[in-house]
Amino acid sequence: MDAVHALRSFIVQELNYKGTPDRLTHDYPLLENNVVDSLGLFMLVSFIEEQFGVEVGHEELVPENFGTLGAMSKLIERKRVG
Asked: I want to staple 63 with a disulfide (CB 3.0 to 4.6 A). Which of 4, 15, 59, 67 is the partner?
């Protein structure tokens, strides 16, 4: 399962996203559209760390890394390679 699909599933199932999952595209603004709030962000970080075996630092908790599924996927990829 790729990162975007795993993240989308997590948001739908664990964060109780009420919209249609198809709306959660690679570049859909999650923070701007209130899909992810502050609690959801910390849940996502825990999921990412456990699911993908990476550690997310406090300095990385910025909209550029968590604003979209694509941004999170890129963060995961950078962390896995680095």
From this structure: 67
Given a cut of 50, the residues of the chain with pLDDT beneath it are: none
Q: Transcribe 39-52 into DSSP letters.
A: HHHHHHHHHHHHHH
Q: Are 18 and 43 in contact (CB under 8 A)?
A: no
- Model pTM score: 0.93
**pLDDT of the residue at 1:** 67
Q: Which residue has the tokens 């739908």?
A: 12
Using a 10 angstrom Cβ sphere, with 0-12 exposed, 13-18 middle and 19 or more buried, the burial of residue 62 is exposed
